[in-house]
Amino acid sequence: MIKGDLLSGSEAAVLAAQLSSVRCTPMYPMIPQDDIVKKLSDLYSSQSDGKKTIEFFTLESPVAALSASIASEATGTRTFTVSTGPGLESMKELMYVASGMRLPLVMVNVSRSLSPTNIWNEHTDILSCRDTGWLIFITSNNQELLDTIIQAYKIAENKKVLLPVLVNMDAFLQSHTRENVFVPSERSISKFLPELNLPVGLNTSKPVSLNPPVKEEYMEFKAQQHIAMKNAEKIIRNVDDIWNKKFHRKYGLIERFHMEDAKYVIVVAGSAAEIAKTAVQELRAQNEKVGLLRPRVIRPWPKNDIREALKNAKKVAVVDQDIMPGTGGILYQEIKASISSEIFCSNFIAGLGGKKILKEDFLNIYERLKKSEKEEEVWL
To answer: Counting Cβ atoms within 10 Å, is residue 378 exposed (0-12), middle (13-18) or buried (19+)?
Structure first.
């Protein structure tokens, strides 16, 4: 294992794709994921003619990039693509196609705000995909990003799952920031991740028609897809255990930080959780019983894990870097539906459009949560 590599999120994503023996990378560059596209282009150009192991294509739109990814994966070719914000939203129709066709491709999303035009980070784009039939992971650092992309292929390609996966990193805070990342060897990953073997795909020697129009059979297809998403929870745990045995890193579906006796809990996803940890540590030094819960897996939603983690909490603050206008935070709705109605739970909207979330913000969230007498929605 190579130690001490300083890698940006973009570099970690490209390395993960390379280690996963990805063979096809259809791309459409958009800020802030364009750095991944450039690095993949450089990787393709560095390979000798006749010895290229990875194909690289730039397409005319995000829709075209996902269309090409679907076609590539349907032939049994391990495929990787990327998106961000508006690009991800324009892909929505085809995201349903990819999951409906049960294609285990992997896409990295560099989360970006939507409208008014803004290139900075927020989670509305990734969380708006929660009903597309894709597995969704939100990572908090570049080590987790690299590991999760590789894990995603093993999870997605499991015969009990066969669904596409979205792996999210925060724009700029991860994508363009270097962190220490331990990179596994190609040999160790080749043992961990076997070659793709689709049970059904496009093959000239065995012609089939994929994704045909259906009538009453539609419900059966959707039921199978629903079961596959439920199956994914166990497969994610199993793959995480295997990864931990090989590389001594374990993530789970949720991350618990100082949760053993916490009466007050901050729930937050993505890189902001790393900042929140510093606030929790400072409060712990003052003997405050506060903890942090970070949802890592958004789909399948780990309802039982969350309910168990929060069952002894007195008050919970859900920090959403997203918004459903007229309703509130997306994570808040999911958390609220997962826990006892007797647990006090307030919603804090923060970080929209890349607005900074500092340690002091989390300290203030804790103080407000502790003093509040009724549940509330607070905009920071």
So the answer is: middle
